[in-house]
Design brief:
By secondary structure, the protein is of the alpha+beta class. Helix content is 18%, strand content 38%. The structure holds flavin mononucleotide.
Length: 199
C-alpha cells in the first residue's frame, strides 16, 4: 500500500471523550469537552491531559488543582457537544438542567449520568507556548454499579454504556456509526432542554 505524508494530524486515530468538571470562582460548576486525555504510570496509574489556549476549565484547574473527567456516552452526546462548543466564559453556558453530584474523595462536580467519573488531582503541570499539559493522580474513580457486575460479560457492559469516540472532527457511536460532525449534535441542546423543563 502506498503512503502519503501529512503534517500534525491525528485523523483516523479515534479518541475517547470526557467532560471535565470544575467549580468556578462563585462555586457553581462548569463543564468542558476534551479528548486529549490519556494515561501515564508513576508507581500507580495516572492521567495526562492537554488543554490548548485560554479556557474556563484551564483557569479553574490551575486555581484548584482538581477536576473530574466524566466519560461521554451516546446518551450524553448532545450535551457534550454543546459543552465543547460554548466557552465557559459565556455566563449562560451552564443554564440548563442536569444532575450534578460531587466526587466521593475530591471537591469536584461530577455528571451523575456519566457511568465513569475520574476524580483527578494535578501532580505536575508543564506550560507550553499555547497550551498546558497536566499530569494527574487518579484519586478515585466512580463507576455505575452495573459496570462492576462480573456476571455480565465485559463486552455487554461496554455496549450498554456505549462510549462515543471521535476522529476527523466527527463523532462515532460505540459500534462505529457516524453520529455527526463536531458542532452538530449540540445544536438546539439548551433550547430543547428548556422546552422539556416547561412541559
Ligand atoms: C470534540 C471536542 C473535543 C475537544 N477536545 C479538547 C481538548 O482535548 N483540549 C482542548 O484544549 N480543547 C478541546 N476542545 C474545546 C473545548 O471543549 C472548548 O474550548 C470548550 O468551550 C471549553 O469549555 P470551557 O471554556 O468551559 O472550559 C474540544 C472540543 C470538542 C468539540
Amino acid at each position: 500500500m502506498a503512503k502519503i505524508s501529512r503534517q500534525g494530524t491525528n485523523d483516523f486515530c479515534p479518541q475517547t471523550l470526557f467532560l471535565y468538571g470544575t467549580y468556578k470562582e462563585d462555586g457553581t460548576p462548569d463543564f468542558g469537552l476534551f479528548c486529549w486525555f490519556s494515561y501515564c504510570w508513576d508507581k500507580t496509574l495516572g492521567a495526562m491531559i492537554c488543554i490548548g489556549g485560554e479556557k474556563m476549565t484551564k483557569d479553574r484547574i490551575k486555581a484548584g488543582q482538581v477536576f473530574s473527567a466524566n466519560l461521554v456516552t451516546e446518551k450524553l452526546l448532545s450535551m457534550a457537544d454543546y459543552l465543547g462548543c460554548k466557552p465557559g466564559y459565556d455566563e449562560d453556558k451552564m443554564d440548563f438542567d442536569a444532575e450534578i453530584g460531587k466526587g466521593a474523595v475530591l471537591d469536584v462536580p461530577i455528571l451523575t449520568a456519566s457511568p465513569v467519573n475520574f476524580e483527578l488531582e494535578v501532580a505536575q503541570s508543564i506550560p507550553l507556548e499555547d497550551g498546558e499539559v497536566f499530569l494527574c493522580r487518579i484519586k478515585n474513580v466512580l463507576y455505575d454499579e452495573m459496570l462492576a457486575d462480573e456476571s455480565s460479560p465485559v463486552g455487554e457492559r461496554l455496549r450498554t454504556i456505549a462510549p462515543v469516540s471521535t476522529t476527523c472532527e466527527t463523532y462515532f457511536s460505540y459500534t462505529g456509526e457516524v453520529l455527526g460532525a463536531w458542532g452538530d449534535p449540540g445544536k438546539g441542546f439548551t433550547k430543547n432542554r428548556r422546552r422539556q423543563m416547561q412541559a
